[in-house]
Design a protein that fits this description.
Low-confidence stretches: none
Helix content: 40-55%
Strand content: 5-15%
Strand order of the largest sheet: 3-2-1-4-5
Mean pLDDT: 95
Largest sheet: 5 strands, mixed
Order of helices and strands: EEEHEHEHHHHHHHEEHHHH
Oligomer: single chain
Number of domains: 3
Number of strands: 7
Number of helices: 13
């Protein structure tokens, strides 16, 4: 095993990078500051006593430095900033201090490296997140239009909105005041544009999901009630490395679906869920969990999705329907609120999904 000679902490920003290098045999600390770009950072890392082990915290600057360092043969980790130990009494924060803290913590193993996706997988995840953000924009645009109509006393007589019948009703609305008419037309045009963009992204994502390296996992996820192609794709892209979780119970913790805990002495209190990890994957799982409030069954649509999948994966999905339905019934019988029951089911559903993906 190669012994690390130099531990390097990097505090990376868009226009600057602060670096601190700790020479482990002597304890000597070297510092440097670089402008934008990666070339100077990589050249400086190459000049340090080898072998070098570097790290920086995950953030908005992405994984460009990580990939460039790996290509140059430099060992580097991207660490989770929320798990970096920091003194509670520290009241002064600087880039220089952060880089030195990382350099001193790295050799001790106190930092938690994250799983870095490949460039291709990250690009696919960017596309799926663009669709997720567009979905939120569309929801807000619809709310603005509906509130404008409500202020004008226009209420749709049908039972369900944003259907074809509702769209025809919207097209027939007219206003006496030209300003109100223009505002209504602008809101409606924004909704139509967002719907067209969302359809285009979903079509591209549907084709992306069928690619050879993604489809085997997505096909297994589609065997579960409440999870179709796009939902399965989002889950796979957000988790992207199911095997890094040693057991099924580790996945809900990463997704932020486990209760927060405050324990001191004999006092123990569980609070709201931690909401760490990917909020996109967490939303997909919570929405899918609502389907398990109904008695277990396999309808035509689900049966078609399960065609061609291994029998043991189908057995996992079928057992999940029974177990999650019973769990929901027990929690509701104890008087638990609906959202609490749904999150508990989502937590168990994540474990079942891990079991199906990791099954041989």
């Amino acid at each position: 095993m190669t012994t690390t000679m130099t531990a390097v902490g990097l505090d990376v920003h868009a226009r600057s990078t602060e670096a601190a290098a700790l020479h482990l045999p002597s304890g000597e600390l070297r510092r440097a500051r670089f402008g934008p770009g990666l070339e100077q950072v990589l050249a400086w890392l190459g000049e340090l006593p080898q072998p070098v082990h570097a790290c920086y915290e995950a953030g908005p600057t992405g994984f460009g430095l990580y990939r460039a360092a790996c290509e140059a043969g430099i060992r580097i980790d991207v660490v989770a900033p929320g798990k970096t130990p920091r003194p509670s009494s520290e009241r002064r924060k600087s880039d220089r201090g952060d880089a030195e803290l990382l350099a001193r913590l790295l050799p001790s193993g106190a930092l938690c490296p994250i799983a870095v996706p490949s460039a291709r997988l990250e690009a696919a995840r960017d596309l799926s997140r663009a669709r997720e953000q567009l979905r939120g924009d569309l929801m807000r645009a619809r709310h603005r239009l509906s509130k404008l109509l409500l202020r004008q006393g226009r209420v749709y007589p049908g039972a369900t909105t944003w259907t074809q019948a509702h769209r025809r009703w919207l097209s027939g609305q007219r206003f006496c005041d030209p300003n109100s008419e223009l505002a209504f037309i602008d809101y409606l045009a924004a909704i139509d544009g967002l719907c067209a963009r969302k359809a285009a992204l979903e079509e591209r994502l549907s084709r992306l999901a069928r690619e050879d390296d993604l489809w085997p996992t997505i096909a297994r996820l589609r065997c579960f009630r409440g999870i179709d192609t796009l939902s399965a794709l989002v889950l796979h892209l957000e988790v992207h490395s199911w095997e890094r979780f040693p057991a099924a119970r580790a996945l809900p913790g990463w997704l932020g679906l486990v209760p927060s805990l405050a324990q001191s002495g004999e006092h123990l209190r569980q609070g709201a869920i931690t909401k760490s990890g990917s909020r996109y994957a967490r939303r997909i799982l919570v929405e899918a969990a609502w389907h398990y409030a109904r008695p277990p069954r396999i309808g035509v649509t689900l049966r078609n999705r399960q065609q061609g999948q291994p029998g043991h994966v189908l057995e996992i999905a079928w057992r999940a329907q029974h177990r999650l339905y019973r769990q929901g019934e027990r929690l509701r019988a104890r008087g638990k609120p609906g959202p609490v029951v749904t999150v508990a089911i989502a937590r168990e559903l994540a474990c079942s999904l891990w079991a199906a993906v990791m099954a041989p």
